[in-house]
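A.,

Following up on our hallway conversation. Structure tokens first:
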């Protein structure tokens, strides 16, 4: 699956955590904190995005490609999306800002020095940053745990 074939998502306001996890997996995902159904449909359609929603009415109307998310539980939501679309966890994970949805860019270790805690600077070699919000990411234990969780989900349904 090359970059062009990777699904892109538009996610409704009920599914913020799911949106965050899709970004962690490297999927281009826009998230609506609020908005009219019609606007969501229009944005999804225009951006050729798959709309993930808890709203049965949107799915029924069929104005854009959409998936009705059945569960309230993040784990089950992710499993549903991964399974229905056959998503894989590959090198693209952890390449996108969880907050802004922008691709992350590599950052020199020296450049990160003044901006991260010193134990992080001392123990990490690779840093990436978001040019949108300025957040700096590194492969710490938090992300490792998330990656393990994702592998579990995908392993169970791959
Ligand atoms: Zn950002």
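Then the amino acids I'd put at each of the 158 positions:
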């Amino acid at each position: 699956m090359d970059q062009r074939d990777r699904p892109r998502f538009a996610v409704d306001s009920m599914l913020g955590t799911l949106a965050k996890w899709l970004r962690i997996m490297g999927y281009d995902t826009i998230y609506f904190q609020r908005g009219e159904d019609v606007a969501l449909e229009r944005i999804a359609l225009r951006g050729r995005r798959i709309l993930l929603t808890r709203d049965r009415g949107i799915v029924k109307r069929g104005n854009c490609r959409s998936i009705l998310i059945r569960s309230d539980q993040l784990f089950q939501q992710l499993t549903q999306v991964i399974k229905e679309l056959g998503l894989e966890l590959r090198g693209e994970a952890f390449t996108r800002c969880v907050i802004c949805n922008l691709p992350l860019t590599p950052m020199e270790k020296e450049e990160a020095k003044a901006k991260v805690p010193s134990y992080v600077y001392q123990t990490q070699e690779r840093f990436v940053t978001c040019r949108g919000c300025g957040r700096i990411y590194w492969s710490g234990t938090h992300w490792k745990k998330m990656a393990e969780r994702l592998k579990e989900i995908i392993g169970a349904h791959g």
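Residues 97, 99-100, 102, 130, 132-133, 135 surround zinc ion (CB under 6 Å). Curious whether your intuition agrees with the design.

B.
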